[in-house]
Design brief:
DNA-bd_dom_put_sf; Helix-turn-helix domain-containing protein; 61% helix; 2 domains; 5 helices; 121 residues
Length: 121
């Protein structure tokens, strides 16, 4: 069989040593660009005070948390989760828009349980 000469093996070794830093630099640059792209894609740019939890949204609407969950399932308001089983957040601007839609001409709200109970007493 053919066996490479000593000079051919040393030449190949020298070529690998010469190209190794260049390959590492190219891979690091490509990974950095990809990481920046993914970071921008999955980063929430809204400040934290613009998002409310389920409890905070329920207090905002003066309803129970189950109502908030029902509205999000129905599509009245949309929800945002950081993880699949993580905390659910709601946009404060969207909640304000939904609240304006629920106010009747006489100033009462369609789903305000506590207002109904106060007027019934």
């Amino acid at each position: 069989m053919f066996a490479p000469s000593q000079s051919g093996a040393s030449m190949l070794s020298g070529l690998i040593q010469a190209l190794s830093p260049l390959i590492e630099q190219i891979v690091e640059e490509k990974l950095a660009v990809r990481l920046d792209s993914l970071t921008q894609q999955y980063t929430v740019t809204q400040p934290p005070n613009e998002w409310l939890t389920v409890k905070e949204a329920a207090l905002f609407f003066d309803v129970v948390p189950q109502t908030i969950h029902r509205w999000s399932k129905k599509g009245t308001i949309s929800r945002f989760k950081l993880e699949e089983k993580g905390t659910t957040y709601y946009s404060k601007a969207e909640l304000n828009a939904a609240l304006k839609q629920q106010v009747r001409p006489d100033g009462t709200r369609k789903h305000a349980r506590r207002q109904f109970q106060k007027s019934a007493v």
